[in-house]
Amino acid sequence: MHIRATAPLALAAAAALAGSLLVTAPAQAASHQGGLHLGKIQYDSPGKDTRTNASLNAEWVDIHNNGRSKLQLKGYKLKDNTGYTYTFGSYTIGAGKTVKVHTGKGRNSSGHVYWNRGSYVWNNTGDKARLIKPNGKLQDSCSWTKSSKGTKNCH
Questions:
Q1: How many helices, marked H, and strands, marked E, lie in the chain?
Q2: What percent of the chain is predicted at pLDDT more than 70?
């Protein structure tokens, strides 16, 4: 009789623990995906690295706003391990929208901004992209190694 009384109690405790784990996991995933974050990175421009503007612009970083409202990106920075830094001017990203930061030269438009560099930023053998808030705090980061095959899905 003692065994029967203990088993339901243990089962109830296990169910409560499992339930609390189920509640916690989605909240953690949501905070990881929520708000402004790095999406996909094309760190190795397809084909040979010719340093043409077309090749430079085929190296890019997607920044995604997964929040419910638009955000002003002025003062946000995108940095690599070497210290190369792109600083956003006045640019508003809509809720649920993505902006692609191209390495080469071009004219900024909706969904595309240009670093205006004449050389590559992201190392093909491994690097780390950092999205930094205007106050200097890290918003998000994403790293890769040589085995990532030219692109990295950060989230």
A1: 2, 11
A2: 77
